[in-house]
Amino acid sequence: MESRIKKMAYTGLFTAISVILTRFFAGNINILGVFALRLSFGEVPIMLSGILLGPVYGIACGALSDLIGYAISPVGGPYFPGFTLTSALTGLIPGLMARYYRNYWNWFSIITVVTATAAVSVLLNTLWLSLLHGKAYLALLPPRIIGKALLIPAYVIILKLVIKHSQQVFYFTRQ
């Protein structure tokens, strides 16, 4: 029982960190004076919640981060549940892969987790934007791939460092 309460508390912390990083510490990139891309580290806490707490808590963190973030600061138009789905998958995929990798987190395993999550994020979010704004999917895809490619190395380094140093804090997550 105590372990579940701690996991819920950590999920709340990861959710709050994700909302802050996504809504208040994100950078917009304009190409030729037109908004092209938004860069943010808000996915890192969601991935961490999936890896350290489990896939269910990762889903909760991702979905809550999107819902709370939109309630605080709506960016980019009306609410669309597809983005909430993508955010939930951002917590689910690392959580499921963490069960496979268990106690041997090396650089390859972290690169695999981040790349899989980034691919789903890029492909689905581009689809949602294409549906919402009526623009061609393939026209929206290249800048999103470039932006995510710029963030992947930072995601990998941050995740590796946090996972390496989190064993004392998240002792209750070991099964």
UniProtKB/TrEMBL annotation:
Lineage top rank: taxon: Bacteria
Membrane-crossing residue ranges in chain numbering: 12-39, 78-97, 104-125, 145-163
Assigned keywords, A-Z: Membrane, Transmembrane, Transmembrane helix
InterPro entries named in the record: ECF_S_folate_fam, ECF_trnsprt_substrate-spec
One Pfam family of this chain: ECF_trnsprt
GO MF annotation list: transmembrane transporter activity
Stated name of the protein: ECF transporter S component, folate family
Organism listed in the record: Caldicoprobacter faecalis
